[in-house]
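Lab meeting prep.
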Amino acid sequence: MILVDKTIKDFATRGLLISKGYAPSNVNSISYDLTLGEFLEPDKESIDVMPGEFLIVKTAEELNIPKDITGRIGEKNSLLRLGLKVDGPQYQPGHVTFAFLRVQNLSGDVITLHQNMKIAQIYFEQLECIPDTTYDQQRNASFHQEDEYRGYGKYDTEYRKNLKSFTKIKDDIEP
């Protein structure tokens, strides 16, 4: 069951769902609008995203997902129409973290992002019961209580072996 506005507001006033950066005006009928907090480049209040470019952004809101709820990131229709693709993970029960979102410019235009602009929405879903092991109880919960971007987290070694630089690939295929 997806939570509605009055339930989101009730949880948030108790420091749940959104524990920092909560703004009642960001509550929609079945979602909450997340806003841009910080760019990974320090001291930037805005940033231009070039066509085809992607970056990771941090929201102003810290999530505090209760043990019987999950949160799903959704795009904002207005930004989608602009050509901006915004992705984020599903937030597990028991997860406390700022949301780090991938933003990609799919348009042919430069798109300027500003701190505090609404960047995505999150939908909260009630689970039928509390899982045996919530995210905060998992030994490998790499992104729990992530205040600063951790990149690949505990998966760094595993994921880096799958990456090849474009230069290396180009050298491999050119005679």
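Slide two material, second protein:
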Amino acid sequence: MRHAKKGYKLGRTASHRRATLSALSGALVRHKRITTTLTKAKALRLYVEPLITRAREDTTHNRREVFRHLMDKQVVTELFEEVAEKVGDRPGGYTRVLRLGQRSGDAAEMAIIELVDYNESEPTTRRRRRRTRRSRRRRSGARRGADAASTASVAEEAALVTSQEEYPEPPDLDIAEEVPQEESDPPAKETSDSGD
């Protein structure tokens, strides 16, 4: 039984789970924002925040402890030099998890996890309206035809209004009175000398 056993198993063995979280945290430090499943994002937050706290104090011991988890020299260097400076005096809470909705393939809950100090503006997440049974019901043929006709007329009116707004009529100018028109003769036919 798992009495009082905290943490996320992620459907993996312990070694596979450690490798997954190590790779995700490396990607998060590199890119500052990643998209993954909600459960992995929550597990990653518990994994990476203590590492960022350690990176605030740049000592050889802390670098070795963080390297033990991340296993990538470039990521450790970026964490200690760039991310630790940006974190500064923040007392924890270095990451933010934003829900995105369900993935179309397997309906898994998706989320964005990002470093808070790098992305101050929250992205607008698209909320899909949940369909009800009533909204999927087919309408009767007469009603559908009336709706299509009214939609078409509304679209035509909108197109007419926008075209008038984009291209207003030019003001009336009496150009014909100011500029005399010259009568021009129709062009004469040219004769070709082909063998005369």
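Talking points for slide two:
The radius of gyration is 34 Å.
The helical segments are 14-31, 38-55, 60-70, 73-87, 133-136, 141-166, 175-178.
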